[in-house]
């Protein structure tokens, strides 16, 4: 009975591994992961630019510097 349990676990792991290998070899997983990282980086830089612009406006108004050059 123990052998049957271990064989079924081995078969299950083998099936999962082969599915994962097929996904990785097709590039679908890599494309998804790269897309997620690109989206995160884009969101980070957009937030950074907005914060920088906001802070620059605050500093210009505090110093009385004309914003339009």
Quickly list its features:
69 residues; mainly alpha; rod-shaped; 88% helix; Secreted protein; single chain
What is the topology?
Layout (H helix, E strand, L loop, with lengths): L1 H25 L1 H36 L6
Protein name: Secreted protein
Organism: Glutamicibacter nicotianae (Arthrobacter nicotianae)
**What would you call the quaternary organization?**
single chain
The count of β-strands is 0
* General shape: rod-shaped
Order of helices and strands: HH
From the helix content, strand content and strand pairing, which structural class follows? Answer: mainly alpha
Percent helix among the residues?
over 70%
Number of alpha- plus pi-helical segments: 2
Describe the largest sheet: none
Q: Averaged pLDDT, please?
A: 88
What separation lies between the terminal Cα atoms?
Answer: 83 Å
Task: Bin the strand percentage.
Answer: under 5%
List unreliable stretches of 5+ residues. Answer: none
Instruction: Report the radius of gyration as a whole number of Å.
Output: 27 Å
């Amino acid at each position: 009975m123990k052998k049957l349990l271990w064989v079924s676990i081995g078969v299950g792991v083998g099936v999962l591994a082969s599915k994962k290998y097929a996904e990785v070899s097709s590039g679908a997983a890599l494309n998804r992961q790269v897309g997620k990282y690109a989206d995160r980086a884009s969101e980070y830089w957009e937030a950074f630019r907005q914060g920088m612009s906001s802070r620059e406006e605050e500093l210009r108004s505090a110093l009385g510097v004309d914003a339009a050059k």
